[in-house]
């Protein structure tokens, strides 16, 4: 699979970023570009945002704030009887001024209609939305689930409509929180990819770029809807959610069996991943995790890394195959039908999660060092996903954002503030279903394959490959576009 990353813009000044094996065209964001938004949104007078989940709320608010003072109006569309009506009103969207209404009415009035309702609702009701669209309205997506569903069901997007995607590389709360921080630190926000799936009038690229700038994206890179869908769904099940949950549960058990008390075991497992390991990667890259250890700790890291890489890569490859051939999507749809409106049971029932409050309470009293074994397991799993994406032909910006940046700059800070189990239970249903399906697979592979193998000497060839890995170059290039602020989780 090959993605075209070069593009041009009539509106925005573009940059070229050096990546392994070539260059990618990117757009550096920032509030200094807001005056160009009316040009980018030429022909758009009304933006309809359907849905008020985390992404719907964040994107509607960011778009409204960025377009303030223009004649472009942002309206939120919700289903009849939605429990979100009160919250949307509390955030200033009202029926009285036409910025809040029935979802199909809002869809029918929009020049750009952004579909941010739950995946299950989108699968069930997309034909109604398509039928409501006015001629020539542009369909906006923030990931490729609908395209995957249409492909599996034999459907397609309606002809005559542009289809674009802008996909923030972080959860909705991060998209909004970093945008708010960007009012004080120019460029603070969540990176986004964009894709143009249909462009009947030739305006799609600038419209997508304007949408991304209005969301506050520090940099925007191009992908395809298919590539984004695969990397996004695989990432949720692997290093972003599923693998992390399986990893910290297995590590906690390992450390408890080795004699650690509950708090120490939690600090060496979950707290280490979400805290010092994530911060080190965010600020200095993957190699810095190992380089910051003394020789004895490096030996532990090396054995954990080389024992973990192969079993983690096998599972990532299996997930990718099942996403690519539609199996994973079908499993999500079947689960949604089975569950209906019933809530899922919580995933944080194991004993370790009762310890999290005690660990957070003592954060200010100690400087937690990187645990070398935990670090080796985490970095190996992250590298396994990177390598799988690279082998499948994804562009480097997509690889580092979906495998590294989204993890360490968006999800893991929230996991640090709440805990991993909380995040798995409070993400989208599609992500929750994937994490529940694949997290136990990773847990079993760590406990049954990786950890026993870590008793043996490290694989020198794997370590050499890690030291010379091209991802370090790609991450360094992306770091040059990173805003000079860490997300503040409230």
From TrEMBL:
Gene Ontology molecular functions: isomerase activity; ketol-acid reductoisomerase activity; metal ion binding
Residues of the KARI N-terminal Rossmann domain: 27-227
Q: Which UniProt keywords apply?
A: Amino-acid biosynthesis, Branched-chain amino acid biosynthesis, Isomerase, Magnesium, Metal-binding, Oxidoreductase
Entry keyword annotation includes Oxidoreductase: yes
| Protein's UniProt keywords contain Oxidoreductase | yes
Highest taxon of the lineage: Bacteria
- A biological process from GO: L-valine biosynthetic process
Q: Which cofactor does it need?
A: Mg(2+)
Pathway this chain belongs to = Amino-acid biosynthesis; L-valine biosynthesis; L-valine from pyruvate: step 2/4; Amino-acid biosynthesis; L-isoleucine biosynthesis; L-isoleucine from 2-oxobutanoate: step 2/4
Boundaries of every KARI C-terminal knotted domain copy: 224-366
Kindly list the positions annotated as binding Mg(2+) 1.
232, 236
Per UniProt, Mg(2+) 2 binds at 232
InterPro entries per the UniProt record, alphabetical: 6-PGluconate_DH-like_C_sf, 6PGD_dom2, KARI, KARI_C, KARI_N, NAD(P)-bd_dom_sf
Entry similarity comment: Belongs to the ketol-acid reductoisomerase family.
Q: Which PANTHER family match?
A: KETOL-ACID REDUCTOISOMERASE, MITOCHONDRIAL
Q: Spell out the protein name for this chain.
A: Acetohydroxy-acid isomeroreductase
Annotated organism of origin: Streptomyces chartreusis NRRL 3882
């Amino acid at each position: 699979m090959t993605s075209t990353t070069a593009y041009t813009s009539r509106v925005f000044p573009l940059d070229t970023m050096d990546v392994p094996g070539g260059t990618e065209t990117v757009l550096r964001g920032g509030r200094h570009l807001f005056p160009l938004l009316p040009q980018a949104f030429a022909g758009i007078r009304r933006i309809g945002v359907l849905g008020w989940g985390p992404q719907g709320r964040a994107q509607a608010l960011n778009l409204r704030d960025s377009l303030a003072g223009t004649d472009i109006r942002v309206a939120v569309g919700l289903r009849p009887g939605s429990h979100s009506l009160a919250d949307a009103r509390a955030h200033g969207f009202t029926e009285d001024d036409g910025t809040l209404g029935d979802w199909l009415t809002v869809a029918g009035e929009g020049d750009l209609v952004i579909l941010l309702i739950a995946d299950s609702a989108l699968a069930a009701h997309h034909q109604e939305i398509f039928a409501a669209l006015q001629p020539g309205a542009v369909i906006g997506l923030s990931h490729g689930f609908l395209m995957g569903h249409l492909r599996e069901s034999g459907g397609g997007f309606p002809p005559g409509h542009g289809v674009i995607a802008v996909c923030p590389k972080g959860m909705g709360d991060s998209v909004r929180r970093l945008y708010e921080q960007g009012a004080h630190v120019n460029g603070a926000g969540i990176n986004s990819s964009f894709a143009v799936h249909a462009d009947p009038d030739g305006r799609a690229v600038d419209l997508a770029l304007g949408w991304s700038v209005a969301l506050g994206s520090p940099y925007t890179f191009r992908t395809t809807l298919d590539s984004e869908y695969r990397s996004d769904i695989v990432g949720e099940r692997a290093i972003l959610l599923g693998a992390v949950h399986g990893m910290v549960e297995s590590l906690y058990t390992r450390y408890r069996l080795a004699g650690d008390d509950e708090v120490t075991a939690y600090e060496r497992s979950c707290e280490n991943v979400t805290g010092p390991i994530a911060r080190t990667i965010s600020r200095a890259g993957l190699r810095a995790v190992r380089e910051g250890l003394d020789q004895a700790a490096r030996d532990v890291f090396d054995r954990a890394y080389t024992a973990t890489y192969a079993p983690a890569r096998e599972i990532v490859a299996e997930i990718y195959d099942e996403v690519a051939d539609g199996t994973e999507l079908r499993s999500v749809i079947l689960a949604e039908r089975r569950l209906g409106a019933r809530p899922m049971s919580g995933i944080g029932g194991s004993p370790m999660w009762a310890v999290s409050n005690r660990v957070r309470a003592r954060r200010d009293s100690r400087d937690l060092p990187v645990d070398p074994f935990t670090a080796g397991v985490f970095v190996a799993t992250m590298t396994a996903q990177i390598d799988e994406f690279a082998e499948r032909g994804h562009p480097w910006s997509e690889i580092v954002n979906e495998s590294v940046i989204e993890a360490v700059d968006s999800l893991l800070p929230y996991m640090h503030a709440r805990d991993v189990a909380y995040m798995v239970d409070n993400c989208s249903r599609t992500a929750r279903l994937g994490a529940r399906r694949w997290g136990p697979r990773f847990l079993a592979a760590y406990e049954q394959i990786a950890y026993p193998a870590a008793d043996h000497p490290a694989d020198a060839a794997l370590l050499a490959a890690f030291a010379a890995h091209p991802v370090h170059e790609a991450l360094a290039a992306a770091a040059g576009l990173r805003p000079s602020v860490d997300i503040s989780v409230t």
